[in-house]
Amino acid sequence: DTAVSQTPKYLVTQMGNDKSIKCEQNLGHDTMYWYKQDSKKFLKIMFSYNNKELIINETVPNRFSPKSPDKAHLNLHINSLELGDSAVYFCASSHARGVIATEAFFGQGTRLTVV
Amino acid sequence: AQSVSQHNHHVILSEAASLELGCNYSYGGTVNLFWYVQYPGQHLQLLLKYFSGDPLVKGIKGFEAEFIKSKFSFNLRKPSVQWSDTAEYFCAVNARTGRRALTFGSGTRLQVQP
Fold it and tell me: Taking the alpha carbons of B4, B5, B9, B11 in that order, is the dihedral positive or negative?
């Protein structure tokens, strides 16, 4: 049973295309995230949703649009893809014990290559 | 704002050598601290975490870390590394209350030679 699953695992596409990455978690967590890992392995938060509400939107181009249809799903849609969007995108989820934050669980990652 | 510094970018060890990876953080409030490991081509897995209590925490695969509040440090240790420990190691923090998103260090690539 995969806790956080994202699809596809690999995505190769041409510049200018629009693509989506899907993420689902079966942990019952209330918060989901998208992180971007660049070619130097640096991980940075892009978006965070809590109970379907956007709570973190880091300085990400508005070509990136997250959508959370329910607490268990957080999708990432990218318009007009650029070469610089090539990276590994990780979905994650976490839950709070009351107001106390806990650890995040990560999906397998989606390696996006824009050619 | 939170920030995390990992001083060792690339560490090469022989099997059975001892490991210590440095991690320092900067944040004005109370934090949770984590070490994640990323094996080649894989996702991030939690090695260990510190929320409160005993500052020496033990994780999976024989790893441990010590939280030293006065030094804002959370160094990762393992007495004897194995070839299978070859991976990228990330230190991360989040705010105990409030912002839950993790802030990561730049990672340390550990290469263990047989």
Answer: negative
